[in-house]
Amino acid sequence: MDILKFITAGSVDDGKSTLIGRLLYDSESILADQLEALHRSNRKNDDGSIDLAILTDGLKAEREQGITIDVAYKYFQTDKRKFIIADTPGHIQYTRNMVTGASNANLAIILIDARKGVIEQTIRHSFLVSLLGIQQVVVCINKMDMVDYSEAVYENIVNDYKALSYKVGLKNIKYIPVSALKGDNIVYPSLNIDWYKGDSLLHFLETVELEVDDSKAHARFPVQWVIRPQTDDLHDYRGYAGRVSSGSFKVNDKVTVLPSGFHSSIEKIELLDEEPDEASAGMSVTIHLKDEIDISRGDILVNTQYQPEVSQLIEADLCWMDTRTLDTSLTYFIQHNSKVTRCRIQEILYKVNINTLEKEYNEDFKLNDIGRVLIKTAEPLAFDLYQNNKANGGAIIIDSRTNVTVGALMLRAIGE
Amino acid sequence: MSKHQLDYLDELEAEAIYILREVAGQFEKPALLFSGGKDSITLVRLAEKAFRPGKFPFPLVHIDTGHNFIETIEYRDAMIKRIGEKLIIGHVQDSINEGKVVEQKGKNASRNALQTVTLLDTIAKYQFDACIGGARRDEEKARAKERIFSVRDEFGQWDPKRQRPELWNIFNGKIHKGENVRVFPISNWTELDVWNYIRREKIELPSIYFAHKREVITRNGQLMGASPFLNMDDDDIIENRTVRFRTIGDMTCTAAVESYAYHIDDIIDEISASKISERGARMDDKVSEAAMEDRKKGGYF
Ligand SMILES: Nc1nc2c(ncn2[C@@H]2O[C@H](COP(=O)(O)OP(=O)(O)OP(=O)(O)O)[C@@H](O)[C@H]2O)c(=O)[nH]1
Ligand SMILES: [Mg+2]
Fold first, then answer.
1. Report field, pTM of the whole predicted structure over 0.90
2. Is residue B1 in some structural domain?
3. Whether residue B180 is found in the same domain as residue B234
4. d(CA A156, nearest CA chain B) in Å
């Protein structure tokens, strides 16, 4: 069985949390004591029915305000698949939490309130989904019960979203008219929406085929930790512990250590008592090399034949997540896989106006701004372009004063 | 998905090992909080996979309420002997003796809440900068919100409204002096995943996870193991029932369930069919809708 990781996104109150609640409720994934707590809760819908959003809105402040503040992770499974859901907040103030949830998703459900259509947060979230490289999108046009299940309303929104999807560069999109509140087309096909003949949401999630390209990308192994027992019987033992971030490594493969550039080949791959011949994307293993070279945390082993870029000057898409404005005169930390080094945002190349999706040229980069920057790092990074290899193409910026993660970077090109 | 896709247990295992190694690589003085329950036992197995044949780059820390099941303590000591790692014990009794906490009174008295103080004192005493725990997001709705690297301020508090963004699998472990990070390597595992993993890896568990005869009393609709730590009176009727424990915490707050699951396969069947969540058997969560969130804000695991 495989795992599908997905998020719900879209503007405030479009019904993301309610939709997750409905999905869990109708698929009978809620246990009796949780159900009982749900009935006991005093947050009810206007018609007195239970409010399904409180299944994921787990914080007191969320229940009080009726909004989602931070991502909630939910787990459920059907006969076909295991699912990890991240229910993200729609409120613009909490965009950083939406990005947190989206960064690990293979699929995004974008909700649109049928009464409101495509609005600014729909655009922002769609743009972020595209930047983060989520391969599959499901657009759920929600609250169909409030527009008399009108096909015309649905078609209008679908057309608007299609125009948007070209602009932001989203490709695989499935459209479903739903009512999260009433349960139309979530788990069961809707009787109210007889003009729609397609899949219910759950059926689509269970059957959609996603390309996981990590294993096809070139072989990368960031070293996290060096195992050196230095006991009498294991005197010369030296194993490099890490997780294959993409591609695969086989015993005898020629590898290069970056950024130093030394070459060697793989002697042995270990996982506790096992010695597999091959380690592929996602596997945590220990690798032994045939030569003794100086390798430590922050270095990366790569297949010698297909090397990544190595540079101190990098162009990247940046999503800013802090209330303090980006400061081009300040030194930040950049963390890329297991490597942390200092950096400066040398230049803001442009910002994207979320409403028009056009480039803007002005100097301040504020909370929730998205754009392209040029970064100078203190030490070279061995990276792939995010569009080719997500695992080795993403990085974060940390404010050295507060230690908080303030920026998400999608590395796009060697800088000039 | 592609054929190269790992089986889900392999994927969860690899992620947990990755997180443990990030802790080793990023912190000066980490610790693994070991409760004696199946989740922390699973963590020990994962640490073996992450660091053997080397030693663990952290000690195990047990916060002992003094009201533990004997089976838990016996298991703990035998395990430490087998793996040859360092164990540090923080005693709630010491916190009581030092006057830092006051023993609860009355019928439902429990030391569960007191252990937070002992935990925070132990962290301060050894200056731990990262504490690895076996909490899972599927356990409870406040836990469902927590990051894998979860920063605590110098008072041990969790601020759910100001969590750091956490992107991809890049974990930011930078902190100021006095702060520490709680790390949850099995955040994305469900209860069933843990049991399937225990079966696959043939991990030995304390015997009380399996069906056994025990003297119990019924309290607030729950079966509690009769013990000297439970304040009992004439209303409490002791019965001999066949039960097992689904989670293991302090004896005064962990309820048993009636069960004939003698073998791990039975347990997996039982959980798959169960209509009650694991924490349904925890008295500490029943207090209010935000019981766990409030405890976490105060420094609880
Ligand atoms: N009529 C109707 N109301 C809905 C539907 N889905 C959600 N709602 C209502 O819309 C309101 C907001 O729903 P939520 O699920 O909390 O919205 P959300 O998108 O999670 O909001 P944030 O997380 O704060 O961005 C609630 O009052 C829901 O009951 C629907 O399909 N029909
Ligand atoms: Mg919500």
1. yes
2. no
3. no
4. 33
A 10 A CB-CB count for B127 gives: 11
CA-nearest residue to B189 within chain A is A75
Domain count, chain B: 2
Contact check, Cβ <8 Å, A31/B13: no
Residues B165 and B242 in one domain: no
- B102, B236: one domain: no
Contact status of A394 with chain B (Cβ, < 8 Å): yes
The atom of ligand 1 lying closest to the CA of A180 is 31
Top-confidence range, A32-41, A63-72, B77-86, B274-283: B77-86
Chain A residues with CB under 8 Å of B143 CB are 58
One domain for residues B25 and B158: yes
Positions of E strands within chain B: 30-33, 60-64, 87-91, 130-132, 149-152, 180-183, 212-219, 222-225, 239-245, 255-258
CA A218 vs CA A279, A302, A384: distances in Å: 13, 8, 9
What's the gap between Cα A87 and its chain centre? 12
CB of residue A214 inside a 6 A radius of ligand 1: no
Asked, for residue B199, whether it belongs to a domain, the answer is no
pLDDT per residue rounded down to tens, chain B (301 residues): 333 456 899 999 999 999 999 999 999 999 999 988 999 999 999 999 999 999 999 999 999 888 888 889 999 999 999 999 999 999 988 887 888 777 777 766 676 777 788 888 999 999 999 999 999 999 888 889 999 999 988 887 888 888 999 999 999 999 999 899 999 999 999 999 999 999 999 999 999 999 989 888 887 778 887 777 767 777 778 888 898 988 877 777 778 888 899 999 999 988 887 766 665 555 555 555 666 777 667 666 6
Out of A7, A11, A18, A38, give the residue to mutate to test ligand 1, the one with the largest number of ligand atoms within 8 Å of its CB.
Answer: A18
Q: In angstroms, what CA-CA distances link B253 with A372, B224, B282, B284?
A: 54, 8, 6, 7
Interface test with B, best of A55, A211, A272 (most B CBs within 10 A): A272
Query: Per the domain annotation, does B241 fall within a domain?
Result: yes
In a shared domain, residues B42 and B178:
yes
* Pocket mutation for ligand 1, best pick of A7, A8, A13, A69 (most atoms within 8 Å of C-beta): A13
What CA–CA distance (Å, rounded) separates B110 from B68? 11
Alpha-helical runs (H) found in A27-119: 32-40, 60-65, 95-102
Residues of A in contact with B277 (CB under 8 A): 31, 33-34
Three-class secondary structure of residue A355 per DSSP: coil
**Are B178 and B228 contained in the same domain?**
no
Query: B145 and B213, same structural domain?
Result: no
What DSSP letter does each residue of A327-339 carry, written as one string? -TTS-EEEEETTE
**Looking at ligand 1, which residue's alpha carbon is closest to its atom 2?**
A143
**Lowest-confidence segment of A101-115, A230-244, B236-250 by average pLDDT:** B236-250
Specify the pLDDT at position A243: 97
CATH value at residue B82: 3.40.50.620
Is A55 a pocket residue for ligand 1 (Cβ < 6 Å)? Answer: no
> What is the rounded (10 degree) CA torsion for B60, B64, B70, B76?
0
| Cβ–Cβ gap A34/B51 under 8 Å | no
Which residues 256-295 in chain A show a CB within 8 A of chain B? 271-272, 280-284
Domain residues for B37?
8-193+290-297
A87: nearest CA partner in chain B: B145
- As for the ipTM of the complex, it is 0.94
The residue contributing the CA closest to ligand 1 atom 4 is: A181
User: Domain check: are B138 and B18 in the same one?
Assistant: yes
Q: Is A242 on the interface with B (CB under 8 A)?
A: yes
The ligand whose atoms approach the alpha carbon of A116 most closely is 1
Does residue B198 sit within a domain?
A: no
Domains belonging to chain A, first-starting first, are 2-211 (3.40.50.300), 215-303 (2.40.30.10), 309-414 (2.40.30.10)
